[in-house]
Design goal:
Strand content: 5-15%
Structural class: alpha/beta
Number of helices: 20
Shape: elongated
Helix content: 55-70%
Number of strands: 10
Largest sheet: 6 strands, mixed
Length: 568
């Protein structure tokens, strides 16, 4: 029953994404299934009339020839139309599926990316999403095959109906073998999920520019290729063995209906000799026998393919078991402004088996504070920002915003009033203006003067001078061969300017000035302090001079010790 439900969901998706093309494909499938039997029946009738000279009528022969010729032309026309309809339906459905993958992958809670099971589920989703289109095609093919069988049995009704049913029954062993093999094939693919994910990692980094320099510097090409090939061979070996068993078993079981058909045709020949049937009927029945075996095997094969596709479709439900960040937004409050932030005895670790990153951390911050988080690498500075942005939730303790637990606010509203810039902030291969537009959709449009002002703040004015089209120039060459390729330092300045474009109550800055010289860094923090005098600014820095500009210093010594003091 659950497999039938998966099939119905796939068909609903096809109709939802391409209703016209789905209906057309069903209609054309029915017509193209019936037409060959109409042509075969008319051909048999024509031969019977040609062998009976006493009742020979030229008009009837002419009609039969016209019908046969027209049916071939119509069949060719419908086949071309069906190919076009199939392509359009497939592409529209594939777009709908890929769009669902994008939406799911970009809204799921970030914490699940630390879970290998989620990565396996996502990999299975992406790999098996094509099964949705496959199950639709196989279902329509099964529908066509069933109609073909009905047409064939109707034509057999005049004689040899029992023999036709025996041939159909003889294909059942083939169906049983195919179903068993399909189940085993799916089990092997599930076992290979982890290795598939690891294999894809080696494949993806080989074409990722972020890794390109290091790979070439260390001559890692052969190493990556060998790693990929080894994992591929481990995955392929089991599938290959299963396929070999499949071919051997299917070769044996598919001989059975052919043996039945030999006896069937021998009986037809005998009936012709005894003049029990006419020559036209011989052509009809012999054509039907070959067609019956092919169609029955096709039907059985389609059932097996649908069964296999349904098994794959069941893995698509895994990804839905991971809730999105905004799944409970309707029942939560909307945060519009931040007056105070309080950490009360906060503990945090990424997974139950990991050590604590933060232990018993408490502090309070109010509007207008210019706060520095100070500490060594690994002391939890970046983690504090991630907890404030609800990328993760505290393991223990409370985080209060405006004296209300942060979990009482919707994630979406929190991130609208918080603005964060990390060292690893992203710049997209869009135009410079579009990069700023995506940083704050609420503004609706981007003013060139605002971009210029922010670039001056981050000491990046020279970047605009280097770009051919200024703020309208593309970053990188993905969308424009003349796109600008920023250096590492320029990339960081663009990302920082983009971040500061967003209007927010709280600004979080995590080591964002690593690419600045000391003078530019000091100038930047003076500008931020002046620009955000009525906001909350929390920043991290290894520069003691910059740290002294803060109104409050939170010193994270180790995961279990911290000091809070006003900066004097």
């Amino acid at each position: 029953m659950r497999y039938l439900k998966s099939i119905l969901e796939a068909l609903k998706l096809s109709y939802r994404s391409a209703p016209v093309f789905t209906i057309l494909q069903v209609i054309l499938t029915i017509l193209m299934t019936v037409f060959p039997y109409l042509s075969l029946s008319v051909t048999a009738n024509l031969l019977n009339r040609l062998t009976n000279f006493s009742n020979l009528k030229i008009s009837e022969i002419g009609t039969c020839l016209i019908v046969i010729s027209c049916s071939n032309v119509i069949m060719d026309f419908m086949n071309n139309v069906l190919s076009c309809v199939q392509y359009c339906r497939y592409e529209k459905t594939a777009c709908e599926i890929n769009n669902h993958i994008i939406q799911k992958a970009t809204t799921v809670k970030i914490e699940v990316f630390d879970n290998p099971q989620y990565l396996d589920a996502l990999n299975a989703f992406i790999n098996n999403s094509s099964s949705i289109n496959a199950v639709i095609e196989n279902t329509l093919s099964l529908f066509s095959g069933m109609i073909s069988l009905i047409c064939a049995l109707v034509l057999f009704r005049g004689g040899y109906f029992f023999q036709a049913c025996l041939i159909m029954l003889a294909t059942i062993p083939s169906f049983c073998v195919e179903r068993k093999i399909a189940k085993k094939q799916n089990e092997i693919k599930l076992e290979n999920l982890k290795k598939d994910r690891q294999r894809n990692y080696f494949f993806n980094i080989s074409s990722d520019k972020r890794y390109a320099y290091d790979i070439r510097l260390h001559g890692m090409s052969k190493y990556l290729s060998d790693k990929y090939k080894k994992l591929w061979e481990e995955c392929f070996l089991k599938l290959k063995q299963n396929k070999q068993h499949q071919y051997k078993a299917l070769t044996v079981v598919r001989i059975i209906p052919e043996i039945f058909s030999i006896f069937f045709m021998a009986q037809i020949v005998n009936d012709v000799v005894l003049r029990k049937i006419e020559i036209g009927s011989v052509v009809l029945y012999i054509g039907l026998v070959g067609s019956l075996i092919q169609i029955t095997l096709l039907v059985m094969g389609n059932i097996s393919y649908i069964y296999e596709d349904a098994l794959k479709l069941s893995t698509l439900k895994w990804i839905d078991s991971y809730s999105s960040e905004n799944s409970e937004a309707e029942n939560l409050m909307c945060l519009e402004d931040v007056d105070s932030i309080v950490f009360q005895n906060v503990y945090f670790k990424y997974t139950p088996i990991d050590p604590y990153i933060i232990q018993n951390l408490s502090f309070s911050i109010s509007k207008g504070d210019f706060v520095c988080l100070w500490g060594k690498n690994g002391s939890g500075k970046s983690t504090v920002f991630k907890l404030l942005l609800r990328y993760y939730d505290a393991t223990e303790g409370e985080i209060l915003i405006n004296s209300i637990d942060i979990k009482q606010y919707s994630v979406e509203s929190i991130r609208k009033v918080f603005n964060q810039a990390f060292q690893s902030n992203i710049v997209y291969a869009f135009s410079l203006k579009e990069n700023f537009y995506t940083a704050d959709f609420s503004k609706g449009y981007v003013l060139d003067d605002e971009i210029l002002k922010l670039f001056q703040l981050v000491s990046g004015g020279e970047i605009l001078d280097k770009m051919d089209n200024g703020v309208n120039g593309k970053i990188y060459k993905i969308f424009d061969p003349n796109g600008y390729e920023p250096s590492g330092g320029e990339y960081q300045k663009i990302a920082l300017a983009r971040t500061l474009y967003r209007n927010s109550s709280v600004i979080l800055l995590d080591e964002v000035t690593a690419a600045f010289d000391k003078e530019s860094e000091e100038e930047f923090f003076r500008g931020i302090k002046e620009m955000a005098s009525n906001k909350i600014v929390i920043f991290t820095s290894h520069n003691s001079k910059i740290a002294r500009t803060a109104s409050k210093l939170i010193h994270l010594k180790t995961p279990s010790h911290f000091d809070i003091a006003p900066n004097i």
